[in-house]
Amino acid sequence: MNLLSIGASHRTADVAVLERLSISEAEVPEILQKLLAQPYVSEAVVVSTCNRVEVYAAVNGFHGGLGDICNVLSRHSGVPATELAGHLYVHYGEAAVQHSFRVSSGLDSMVVGEAQILGQLRDAYHAATESDSAGRLLHELMQQALRVGKRAHAETGIDKAGQSVVTAALEVAASHLGGDLTGRSALVIGAGAMGALSVATLTRSGVGPLRITNRSADRADRLAEAYGAVTVPLAELSSALSEVEIVVSATGSTEPLLTRELLSAALAARTRTEPLVVLDLAMPRDVAPDAAGLPGLVVVDIDGLAAARRTAPAAAETAAVEQIVAAEVDNFLGWMRGAEIAPTVAALRTRAEEVVTSEMRKLLGRRPEFTEEQRADVSRTLHRVVQQILHTPTVRVRQLAAEPGGDQYAALLRELFDLDVPLATHADAVPEIGGKA
């Protein structure tokens, strides 16, 4: 069994493709079950954010697992597999471990160092746990990825600027509004995790007055109370749009919430000379594609953010995180090698027990005069001798297996003792695959 990571992000696909690939929270359990139903996939975790869709899987063959996952993503998105392949990156084995740790550390994010990915990974892992789609390998990978991400943020200055997708979007908004957002009126649509982050970031940036609208009024009320904002009923969205300068939209709607008609009406009712800047952080998009180009409207979506220039963390900070990732990858690979030898060690001990039992049966057949106490003494002695003989080599082989090239020791044990151990098939595997990332 080995790890395979397949996905698309802002680096490999535009927003239109990501939109089709996007997997809503409600769809995740179904996608996980479809992945588990594939012949080469035994474990799966799905991560879907505003700028990436990824599948982490435990597979028993590279090519088979790749085909299985691509087919599930193709059927879900409606994008033909041949077309989808041009937008995907693929990581296998060690490369998959490294990729997951770089993602959790914020190194692969559109805004390098952002910490929101940790929460998104945690949610994805929780969903997989709830759907019983994460086995031993992915449980360990996700737990370690979350730990590595926390360590990167705690031990380096990778996130000292507090950058996030929202702060990056506000930088773009500022460029359209004279460079200063202080005192600018804003509306946040959506009160989920991204909406809450938007409200907090806008408040820290001095934006205000601030309004919040959400499908669930109670959630909007709680968020508004926490930040001194005002709630607006969703039914009054058009009116609210006409009165603000900045809109941050981050809902979970599967259809565009801000239609061309709605935005046209809001723009017509505006008395301000500045453009209405809409930051669309939703996936799928909240702003209808045909609304782009309306006079007085500026729409910034994930494509726009990916193209915008932002200040990256210092090279020293990034290098420090890369060092953490490299060390943690080595540790995880050691754990994987140790885990792979466990079935072989167990099979060896089982074989030894079978030999002891067989020899005891022969002995007692020849010596029927033994009392029950004598039989028990002989049995205990034989088992104790075998366990003592096996103890040192089995401990040592576990240690050796954790080192690079350690898989040869498991193979050697199986050959020497003719052990029949069910193993994952890696005949079609490749040592390391790294696609566009």
Automatic annotation (TrEMBL):
Q: Where is the active site?
A: C50 (nucleophile)
**What UniProt keywords are attached to this protein's entry?**
NADP, Oxidoreductase, Porphyrin biosynthesis
One Pfam entry for this protein is: GlutR_N
Q: In chain numbering, where does the site feature Important for activity fall?
A: H99
An additional note in the Swiss-Prot or TrEMBL entry is: During catalysis, the active site Cys acts as a nucleophile attacking the alpha-carbonyl group of tRNA-bound glutamate with the formation of a thioester intermediate between enzyme and glutamate, and the concomitant release of tRNA(Glu). The thioester intermediate is finally reduced by direct hydride transfer from NADPH, to form the product GSA.
Q: Which InterPro entries does the annotation name?
A: 4pyrrol_synth_GluRdtase, 4pyrrol_synth_GluRdtase_dimer, 4pyrrol_synth_GluRdtase_N, GluRdtase_dimer_dom_sf, GluRdtase_N_sf, NAD(P)-bd_dom_sf, Shikm_DH/Glu-tRNA_Rdtase
According to the UniProt record, what class of enzyme is this? oxidoreductase
| Domain Tetrapyrrole biosynthesis glutamyl-tRNA reductase dimerisation as annotated: residue spans | 321-419
Where substrate is bound, by residue? T49, C50, N51, R52, S109, E114, A115, Q116, Q120
**Residue sites binding NADP(+) per the record:** G190, A191, G192, A193, M194, G195
Which transformation does this protein catalyse, written as a reaction? (S)-4-amino-5-oxopentanoate + tRNA(Glu) + NADP(+) = L-glutamyl-tRNA(Glu) + NADPH + H(+)
Task: Note the superkingdom of the native organism.
Answer: Bacteria
Give the record's GO biological process terms. protoporphyrinogen IX biosynthetic process from glutamate
Gene3D superfamilies linked? Glutamyl-tRNA reductase, N-terminal domain, NAD(P)-binding Rossmann-like Domain
* Chain's role: Catalyzes the NADPH-dependent reduction of glutamyl-tRNA(Glu) to glutamate 1-semialdehyde (GSA).
Entry protein name? Glutamyl-tRNA reductase
Q: What is its EC number?
A: 1.2.1.70
Task: Please name the GO terms that the record assigns under molecular function.
Answer: glutamyl-tRNA reductase activity; NADP binding
Similarity section: Belongs to the glutamyl-tRNA reductase family.
Q: In which pathway does it act?
A: Porphyrin-containing compound metabolism; protoporphyrin-IX biosynthesis; 5-aminolevulinate from L-glutamyl-tRNA(Glu): step 1/2
All copies of domain Glutamyl-tRNA reductase N-terminal, residue ranges: 6-156
Tell me the ranges covered by the Quinate/shikimate 5-dehydrogenase/glutamyl-tRNA reductase domain, including all copies.
Answer: 173-306
Q: In the UniProt entry, what is the domain comment?
A: Possesses an unusual extended V-shaped dimeric structure with each monomer consisting of three distinct domains arranged along a curved 'spinal' alpha-helix. The N-terminal catalytic domain specifically recognizes the glutamate moiety of the substrate. The second domain is the NADPH-binding domain, and the third C-terminal domain is responsible for dimerization.
Quaternary organization: Homodimer.
